[in-house]
């Protein structure tokens, strides 16, 4: 049961107020000065995404927005809530926010790889997305959104991928990335052997002419599938492609050699569902 905050959000008039420090200068980069990559609070923008944050396992630190927008969220009791006019809000975060509200949350450690591979039911059909070398935050966010929509149960990242909980990733995913378990394959591509040992058919996506047509892969015959996707341009490394069960391509019109990775991911997820 949701308990609505009885008192209104606290009004912030000073952009230097330390109570809203989580949101200061968000355009400075994917982390605060002096902090390591992949650290610091998770920042979420917009009412739908904040609502998904509230339903996720991530502990909410506070909420900050324009008058009326924060109150509309019907926050659970105990979450600090602040509001300010648009000019103060813009001065704090460093840009004009069109979505009207932000929230910050504590990070959670990456999921345990063995537990993620097993899933709640080791016998149930499972689909995973494995990302190698993706450094574009918006591509990761878009892939996460498609993953939630099209039946992917988790994300596995190689150590070089960008932070999937960075603000732009969360924004582009519409907050859906917060509902996906995420694990890191620290030994890359060696840890793909663990994925295969857990019963997953590993499928590397590539535009290479010698790859099989994606439509030839029978998802019903392989109830556990892990799809590998590489960065736009270089794609998957030869080492990653050599470590999988099958290399597959999306059939395309002659003269078009590839798709953007986010579009390719959505097509692949839907095809192998």
UniProtKB/TrEMBL annotation:
This is RNA methyltransferase. GO terms for molecular function: RNA binding; RNA methyltransferase activity. InterPro entries: Alpha/beta_knot_MTases (IPR029028), Ribosomal_eL30-like_sf (IPR029064), rRNA_Methyltransferase (IPR051259), SpoU_MeTrfase (IPR001537), tRNA_m1G_MTases_N (IPR029026). It comes from the Bacteria. Keywords: Methyltransferase, Transferase. SUPFAM superfamilies: alpha/beta knot, L30e-like. Residues 129-268 form the tRNA/rRNA methyltransferase SpoU type domain. GO terms for biological process: methylation; RNA processing.
């Amino acid at each position: 049961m949701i308990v609505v905050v009885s008192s209104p959000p606290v009004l912030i008039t000073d952009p230097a107020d330390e109570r809203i420090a989580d949101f200061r200068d968000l355009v400075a980069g994917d982390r605060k000065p002096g902090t390591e990559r992949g650290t610091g609070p998770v920042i979420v923008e917009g009412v739908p995404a904040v609502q998904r944050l509230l339903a996720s396992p991530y502990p909410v630190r506070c909420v900050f927005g324009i008058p009326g927008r924060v109150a509309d969220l019907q926050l659970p009791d105990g979450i600090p809530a602040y509001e300010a006019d648009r000019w103060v809000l813009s001065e704090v975060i460093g840009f004009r926010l069109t979505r009207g509200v932000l929230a910050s949350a504590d990070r959670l450690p990456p999921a345990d790889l063995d537990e993620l591979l097993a899933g709640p039911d080791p016998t149930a059909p499972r689909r995973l997305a494995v990302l190698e070398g993706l450094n574009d935050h918006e591509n990761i966010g878009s892939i996460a959104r498609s993953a939630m929509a099209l039946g992917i149960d988790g994300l596995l990242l190689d150590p070089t991928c960008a932070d999937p909980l960075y603000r732009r990733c969360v924004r582009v995913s519409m907050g859906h990335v917060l509902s996906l378990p995420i694990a890191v394959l620290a030994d890359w591509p060696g840890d793909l052997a663990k994925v295969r040992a857990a019963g997953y058919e590993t499928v590397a996506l590539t535009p290479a002419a010698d790859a099989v047509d994606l439509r030839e892969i029978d998802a019903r015959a392989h109830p556990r599938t892990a799809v590998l996707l590489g960065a736009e341009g270089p794609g998957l490394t030869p080492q990653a492609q050599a470590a999988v069960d099958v290399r597959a391509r999306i059939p395309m019109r002659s003269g078009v050699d590839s798709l953007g990775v986010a579009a390719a991911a959505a097509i692949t997820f839907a095809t192998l569902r």
